[in-house]
Write a structure and sequence with these properties.
There is one protein chain. This protein is globular. A five-stranded antiparallel beta sheet has the order 1-2-3-5-4. It folds into two domains: 85 residues, Phosphorylase Kinase, domain 1 (2-Layer Sandwich); 187 residues, Aminoglycoside 3'-phosphotransferase, Chain: A, domain 2. Strand 9 and strand 10 form a beta hairpin. The longest helix is centred in the middle third of the chain and has 19 residues. With 286 residues, it is an alpha+beta fold. Helices cover 41% and strands 17% of the residues.
Length: 286
């Protein structure tokens, strides 16, 4: 931590720094746990000099979740495009069956928050990437245009997705209504629900970080939670006590919805995620 960064943190919090230690994770900037002279601990995310990290967008999303839902998230103590300071949430151990049931309760409650349109009042970020949210009345159109087609084009532009995949995606988007329906209402989602963003301590959920919020069909959130094995049968059994899933989610819709996070990972990393996309497209006949 540089002397100038230390000075900014101390000025923002009106408190001296005792010590800092790096934390794992985060797609943007360096993340540290910082102990303060008042006995508290905070999390500091700092972008390298000159980098347009848009950490203030992350702050806005966390503040939005705190204002519009009961989802436990860290408080924002300071926000600037290159510096974000949050309250520290305890972490010790991974997801337990108890934590999965708590997560199901949390997400079912989050998904009860509704809006008039799909999308959001502003663009957000996912994994540090721009995420458009122009309001739309149709979920299928929103998912096709602002999720699949948009992120696939970004992956092609970055040279990580072969250009011959684009016509296949366009063909799939023209057929989405064969598998997807229009949900009863646009519902608020966290948007980046994988294990690294679910914090636990002593077998219980302490909070959720790094959101990518918008109003959606919540099935896209549930699908993402299975892509890397975050939640399993225990979670889904409890979630369906609150919000039963229509038939076909696990058999078809889950894989369709997971194309979006796969495109995000293709854009960020390329590699084997390209093959995962191709297999899904092939499965749906394109």
């Amino acid at each position: 931590m540089t002397s100038s960064l230390t000075a900014r943190i101390q000025s923002a919090l009106n408190c001296d720094i005792l010590r800092g230690a790096p934390l794992a994770g985060g797609c943007i900037g360096d993340v540290s746990a910082v102990d303060l002279s008042d006995g508290s601990r905070v999390v500091v995310k700092a972008a390298p000099d000159g980098e347009d990290a848009q950490l203030d967008v992350e702050a806005w999303m966390l503040t939005y979740l705190a204002a519009h839902s009961a989802l436990p998230v860290p408080d924002v103590l300071h926000a600037a495009p290159d510096l974000l300071i949050l309250t520290h949430l305890d972490t010790a151990g991974g997801l337990t069956p108890t934590a999965e049931r708590e997560a199901a309760d949390h997400l079912a409650a989050l998904h009860s928050v509704t809006a008039q349109s799909f999308g959001l009042e502003r663009a957000t970020l996912i994994g540090g990437l721009h995420q458009p949210n122009m309001p739309a009345d149709s979920w299928i159109a929103f998912f096709a245009e602002q999720r699949l087609l948009y992120m696939a084009e970004e992956a092609c532009r970055a040279g990580r997705l072969p250009k011959d995949v684009t016509p296949r995606i366009e063909k799939l988007c023209g057929r989405l209504a064969a598998w997807l329906g229009e949900p009863d209402a646009p519902r608020l989602i966290h948007g980046d629900m994988w294990t690294g963003n679910v914090l636990c301590a002593d077998g219980h959920i302490t909070g959720y970080i790094d959101p990518a919020i918008y109003y959606a069909d919540p099935e896209i959130e549930l699908a993402f939670s299975t892509l890397f094995g975050t939640f399993g049968d225990t979670f889904f059994a409890r979630y369906q006590e609150h919000r039963p899933l229509a038939p076909g989610f696990f058999e078809e819709r889950r894989d369709l919805y997971n194309l979006y996070p796969l495109f995000v990972h293709v854009r960020l990393f390329g590699g084997s995620y390209v093959q995962s996309v191709s297999r899904t497209l092939q499965r749906f006949g394109v």
